[in-house]
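[step 3/7] inverse_fold.run input=structure_tokens len=447
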């Protein structure tokens, strides 16, 4: 391992510790030799533009890579990155970049989901710190392997679920763990996604990819298929099994996160799907995923059910001990406790609401201030602090989220999950969906 690089490992959380071999939990602190860490970005358009600039506020962008050589615009891209960082080396193939760039301390990974694990694993094996977008990986096997590799590498890691560091979820977690509404009986998380096509079949139309786009590099580890205008690139890939993880993968690492975190959950023992019959290649138009977890010190029973809703399906207020006219936001979380209910809107920056309102009208909420998700990571590269959503935490969280993605493809069955063995106890069909066979020539060691 290249010891010129980074960090103190990560938090030894109970959930991660229950899944990882104990020998991997010892790590020494190492600091970047560069006073200001050298950062490279894989993907500089859309969310990649946000991530690159987020890292650039605290580190040096010395190289960047994107498969599309566009002129750039409001959402960034190759052209805008060239203007922003004129001295940075430019690449279209991340493999070439990682081979040639010898002074990298960190890398941001902001690709479609199917390329998160290949890029991240390769960087980790080179001792490079990683900031990888959510979901951490597209498959459960990838999540486990990347989590183990990060612990072995001992570098600074962070998943891009930035709300984890925001005041809303920091405050929510403190409220739940302080027993403000008593122990928790059940919880719900939901999103209005997908806002892209799902529940569809592959179109018969195809065309040559635009000259500015390297379609083969965009496909990467995924099975080969022809380019189709407006079907996959640049945004609609999220709904396709080969490239994305649907509405749940996109938003679950944000919205299930505070439930998993606040309740101190470990891996679920069972998961089941409610929704339309699966299609061959895309996630459903809507779904409800029912997770069953072992109870914790913050829950009322030996088990607790957490339900995920998407496709504009929302929890029924009457089933959450709320007045029937309660306004349920488009994206959010509900904790149903012994002594009240906590409702939080996702993405608004607002604070949790406590019900019944009359019981909490004089309650003084202690607000936990936000911290900068990117700054945490870059500081950790230099040996200062621990990123809040490091892979020791984010890996097991991602596995939990992705179990729902598997369940949606195996309807009509309550899947029994053995996290330590990384297998289902009652479904070989579900087991077959835990990992992906990479396209020939794109194999990555460890995946």
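[step 3/7] decode complete -> sequence:
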């Amino acid at each position: 391992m290249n010891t010129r690089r980074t960090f103190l490992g990560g938090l030894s959380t109970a959930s991660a510790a229950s899944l990882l071999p104990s020998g991997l939990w010892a790590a020494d602190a190492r600091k970047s030799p560069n006073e200001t860490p050298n950062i490279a970005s894989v993907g500089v358009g859309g969310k990649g533009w946000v991530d690159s600039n987020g890292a650039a506020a605290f580190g040096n962008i010395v190289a960047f890579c994107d498969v599309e050589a566009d002129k750039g615009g409001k959402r960034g891209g190759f052209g805008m990155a060239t203007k922003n960082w004129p001295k940075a080396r430019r690449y279209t193939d991340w493999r070439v970049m990682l081979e040639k760039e010898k002074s990298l301390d960190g890398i941001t990974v902001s690709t479609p989901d199917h390329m998160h694990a290949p890029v991240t694993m390769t960087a980790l094996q080179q001792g490079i710190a990683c900031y990888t977008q959510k979901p951490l990986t597209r498959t459960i096997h990838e999540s486990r392997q990347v989590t183990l590799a990060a612990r072995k590498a001992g570098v600074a890691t962070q998943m891009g679920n930035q709300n984890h560091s925001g005041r809303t979820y920091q405050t929510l977690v403190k409220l739940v763990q302080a027993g403000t509404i008593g122990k928790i009986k059940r919880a719900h998380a939901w999103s209005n996604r997908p806002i892209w096509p799902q529940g569809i079949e592959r179109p018969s139309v195809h065309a040559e990819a635009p000259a500015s786009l390297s379609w083969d590099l965009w496909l990467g580890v995924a099975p080969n298929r022809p380019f189709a205008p407006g079907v996959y690139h640049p945004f609609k890939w999220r709904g396709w099994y080969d490239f994305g993880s649907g509405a749940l993968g996109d938003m679950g690492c944000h919205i299930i996160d505070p439930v998993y975190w606040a309740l101190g959950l470990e891996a679920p023992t069972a998961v089941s799907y409610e929704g339309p019959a699966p299609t061959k290649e895309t996630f459903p138009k809507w779904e409800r995923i029912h997770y069953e977890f072992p109870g914790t010190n913050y829950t009322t029973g030996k088990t607790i059910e957490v339900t995920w809703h998407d496709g504009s399906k929302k929890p029924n207020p009457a089933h959450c001990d709320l007045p029937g006219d309660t306004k349920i936001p488009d994206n959010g979380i509900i904790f149903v406790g012994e002594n009240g209910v906590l409702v939080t809107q996702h993405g608004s920056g607002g604070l949790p609401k406590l019900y019944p309102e009359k019981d909490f009208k004089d309650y003084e909420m202690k607000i936990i201030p936000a911290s900068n998700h990117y700054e945490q990571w870059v500081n950790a590269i230099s040996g200062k602090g621990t990123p809040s959503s490091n892979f020791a935490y984010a890996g097991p969280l991602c596995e939990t989220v992705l179990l729902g993605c598997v369940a949606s493809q195996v309807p009509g069955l309550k899947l029994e999950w053995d996290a330590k063995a990384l297998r289902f106890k009652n479904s070989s069909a579900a087991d077959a969906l835990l990992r992906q066979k990479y396209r020939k020539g794109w194999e990555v060691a460890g995946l």
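[step 4/7] annotate
The domain at 14-164+373-395 is CATH 3.40.50.720 (Rossmann fold).
The longest strand covers residues 287-294.
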